[in-house]
């Protein structure tokens, strides 16, 4: 796309004050980030101010149809009844709901209507690429989100619900892993299949959380926008495509630009089913880097007890069980140090600001994976038989891990009953 270099904040309307792109883009940090990304992208990464402004407004927008239905459903009954109505429509279609409300009909009309831009062949390629990362992807996502845990509009909902803190952190993480697994399985996002259904369960969960938090005394909408906003959901889609695709090159993966574009398309449709309808979405590798720059500069991070609690809750799940002894404990301790090394490698700034222990030479441990990843990924790209074998092994590992952690891969995707404060 053709863009002008000048980026200013003129006549942009109401945007939450947490959206600081126009301030950050011309600061030394923003200029440095732009230079680094433009070196990779080999193009000017500026975005037109009206595009940036519309994305800023998306920080104050939730799920238009989902939130409208949920508000309507709550006027007609309890939370349990709302969930039952939604789940009935998910399992049996809108015709399975007795006397469905206009809001429910409109919501499921959107859900069941495939967008004109959807290309299933491109989607399937994106899912295949996504699976190629195998077991590396899950801990990567868990650690790469540390910057999100330090972003107030993300931190606050997680802290208030308590979903990613304490003993619930690991289970919630594996529920998220189930979603990543289900949506990227072959045909997983076809109507009625596990990825499609799981995405709708997550959509309902988000609607319920927004309704619980939006009027909370600690939530400042003029500053933070709405909980689980369009913009923050967009950022999650970028994490699953351009951000992971670019960063995992450092571990030997040979993901091509076309591979990343395919993952962008995959996550665009997953987002569509989940209620994401941002005013702009990248469809080319150049725009993908523009989106990467936009999300990096859009909101400032804050380091406090809440952000540190979220980061530590995830990493604590790797700590040895206090009851482990002997070789089992030694092995678990080594794995914990290895994972700390990964966390530092992926997000050194967040690692240091979260008061994790000095990781020492373990920070280089992820580089041990470079050669095997490079060789395997090269073989997958050149030899179809190898690609099929690796894909089978990765899918088998994902299923076994979900069986081990969630029990036959089942996640409840239920909101907490009581907010943490």
UniProtKB/TrEMBL annotation:
<dbReference type="Pfam" id="PF09995">
    <property type="entry name" value="MPAB_Lcp_cat"/>
</dbReference>
<feature type="domain" description="ER-bound oxygenase mpaB/mpaB'/Rubber oxygenase catalytic">
    <location>
        <begin position="145"/>
        <end position="327"/>
    </location>
</feature>
<dbReference type="GO" id="GO:0016491">
    <property type="term" value="F:oxidoreductase activity"/>
</dbReference>
<dbReference type="InterPro" id="IPR037473">
    <property type="entry name" value="Lcp-like"/>
</dbReference>
<dbReference type="InterPro" id="IPR018713">
    <property type="entry name" value="MPAB/Lcp_cat_dom"/>
</dbReference>
<protein>
    <recommendedName>
        <fullName>ER-bound oxygenase mpaB/mpaB'/Rubber oxygenase catalytic domain-containing protein</fullName>
    </recommendedName>
</protein>
């Amino acid at each position: 796309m053709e863009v002008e270099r000048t980026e200013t904040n003129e006549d942009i309307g109401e945007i939450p004050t947490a959206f600081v792109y126009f301030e950050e883009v011309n600061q030394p940090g923003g200029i440095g980030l732009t230079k680094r990304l433009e070196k990779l992208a080999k193009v000017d990464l500026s975005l037109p101010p009206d595009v940036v402004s519309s994305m800023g407004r998306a920080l104050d927008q939730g799920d238009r149809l989902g939130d409208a239905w949920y508000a309507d459903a709550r006027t007609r009954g309890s939370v349990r009844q709302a969930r039952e109505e939604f789940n009935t429509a998910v399992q049996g279609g809108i015709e399975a709901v007795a006397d469905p409300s206009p809001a429910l009909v409109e919501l499921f009309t959107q859900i069941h209507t495939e967008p004109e831009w959807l290309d299933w062949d491109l989607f399937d390629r994106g899912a295949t690429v996504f699976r190629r990362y195998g077991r590396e992807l899950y801990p990567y996502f868990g650690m790469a989100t540390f910057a999100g845990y330090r972003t107030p509009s993300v931190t606050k909902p997680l802290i208030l619900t308590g979903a990613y803190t304490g003993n619930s952190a690991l289970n919630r993480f594996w529920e998220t892993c189930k979603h990543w697994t289900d949506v990227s399985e072959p045909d997983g996002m076809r109507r009625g299949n596990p990825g499609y259904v799981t995405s709708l369960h997550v959509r309902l969960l988000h609607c319920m959380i927004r309704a619980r938090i939006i009027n909370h005394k600690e939530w400042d909408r003029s500053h933070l926008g709405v909980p689980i906003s369009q913009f923050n959901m967009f950022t999650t889609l970028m994490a699953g495509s351009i951000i992971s695709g670019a960063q995992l090159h450092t571990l030997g993966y040979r993901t091509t630009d076309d591979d990343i574009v395919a993952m962008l398309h995959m996550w665009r449709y997953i987002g569509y089913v989940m209620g994401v309808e941002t005013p702009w979405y990248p469809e080319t590798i150049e725009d993908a880097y523009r989106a990467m720059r936009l999300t990096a500069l859009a909101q400032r991070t804050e380091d406090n007890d809440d952000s540190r609690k979220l980061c530590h809750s995830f990493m604590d799940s790797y700590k040895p069980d206090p009851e482990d002894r002997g070789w089992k404990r030694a092995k678990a301790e080594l794995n914990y140090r290895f994972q700390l090394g990964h966390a530092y490698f992926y997000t050194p700034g967040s690692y240091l600001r979260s008061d994790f222990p000095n990781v020492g030479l373990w920070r280089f441990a992820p580089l041990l994976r470079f050669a095997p990843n490079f060789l395997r990924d090269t073989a997958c790209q050149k030899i179809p038989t190898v690609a099929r074998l690796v894909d089978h092994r990765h899918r088998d590992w994902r299923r076994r891990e979900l069986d081990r952690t969630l029990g036959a891969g089942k996640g409840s995707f239920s909101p907490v009953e009581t907010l943490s404060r």
